[in-house]
Amino acid sequence: MSEIYDLIIHNINVASMAEQDNYGIHEDAAICIKNGLIKKIIPNIKQHSGELEAEKAIDGNGYWVTPGLIDCHTHLVYAGDRAKEFEMRLQGISYEEIARSGGGINSTVKATRNASKDELFDLAAKRLSYLIEEGVTTLEIKSGYGLDLVNEKKMLEVARELDEFSPIEISKTFLGAHAVPPEFKNNPDEYINLVCDSMMPELHQSGLIDCVDVFCENIAFSIEQTEKVFNKARQLELPVKMHAEQLSDLGGSTLAATRDAWSVDHLEYLSENSINALKSSNTVATLLPGAFYFLNETVRPPIDLLRKNNIPIAIASDSNPGSSPCLSLLLILNMATTLFKLTPFEALKGVTINAARALRRDDKVGSIEVEKQADLVLWDIESLAELSYKMGGNPCKMVIKNGEVILSKIASPSSTTVEEQPDGNQ
Ligand code: DI6
Ligand code: FE
User: Fold this and answer.
1) Residue 396 and residue 270: Cα distance in Å, rounded?
2) What does pTM read for this prediction?
3) Which atom of ligand 1 is closest in space to residue 288's alpha carbon?
4) Closest by alpha carbon to 272, among 226, 241, 311?
5) pLDDT tens for residues 202-260?
6) Which of 194, 293, 348, 384 stands 20 to 30 A from 377 (CA)?
7) Quick one: which of 31, 27, 28, 32 has its CA closest to 3?
8) Which residue ranges form the domains of the chain, and what is each CATH number?
9) What atom of ligand 1 comes closest to residue 99's alpha carbon?
10) Residues whose beta carbon lies within 6 Å of some atom of ligand 1
């Protein structure tokens, strides 16, 4: 007797993203799902024989299906906005000048400290809903606007609640070393001690940290300070990642690669030396074209060298109020192709399988493969390049997370058996 699936989606073209150098296309396919997992992918279903049985069937209307999108770098939990600073920057004051004069990250710290957990939850949930509407099914969220134990905890608890109460999964990153808070203005090393000796261990004990991040930059923390945070993370057996080489080259990526960091993020000023270090690591290069665009940067990450050295490239929104107030991962695909000259294939890889690698969840998500989670998006597009090509207009028709439809813009699923050629085995 054949297996009865929970759900079959048929009449679709699948971009599995399971191959190294191509989309891994299955035309006119069907995907069979049980217990939240992909159990079978059937290409050319019209030529397939045998009957498939399922509790529910969805006619995919000829749409393209990709893995659920993954945004592997966001600062989605915060209060307030920085529209005033945006206006200042339009008048010629730089992001760095604003940061050095006490604005920037610290103005969001002030607003976030003043917000209640419920307020932060509501703000972040609203932002999250925009991402889900464009097919995001896995998301990373960082702390880093609390900068003391109570407020970093508040942020990470909001991330945890979003993980529990939203339909999608969230990786929680502790970014205590994002900026020096005002009360430690003249003593950044003492703040780093606080991050290492009290904040990180306590938050870890509460199960609030999946990964530890540092903003390693001349307007933030030095290599030595970053190393201290990484050493503490290693002691607690926590993985690390890094904001690196965004505005200058401090060589952070070399340090990160030697610590088996999940990813190094930004990378506009990445050196050839660091590329060599990355080459012999499992660290993903995460590019954030939204920040490059919004800060009007001119130095681009060394894409050709990353390519030549086969370093996996992820792309992400960096959604945050200061340098990338962006709630559209599709727009980020467009920017990755137009500004950084990634191919549409590389861009899609950057928000699927390579983003999964950047969160070390590529055994479960990021591609359409048997035994992986059934995280799928149906798109009303003619070609896959359209996901990068269009600016605005949302072609997402359905989002499926762990085999459950969490968003649908197509007629409700019918409850039937998919009829096929009756002759043959299955
Ligand atoms: N790099 C970024 O792009 C964000 N943080 C960071 O370290 C910017 C955060 C902000 O300006 O609020
Ligand atoms: Fe960031």
Assistant:
1) 34
2) 0.95
3) 3
4) 311
5) 999 999 999 999 999 999 999 999 999 999 999 999 999 999 999 999 999 999 999 99
6) 293
7) 32
8) 4-68+368-419 (2.30.40.10), 69-358 (3.20.20.140)
9) 11
10) 75, 104-105, 108, 178, 215, 243, 246, 291, 318, 320-323
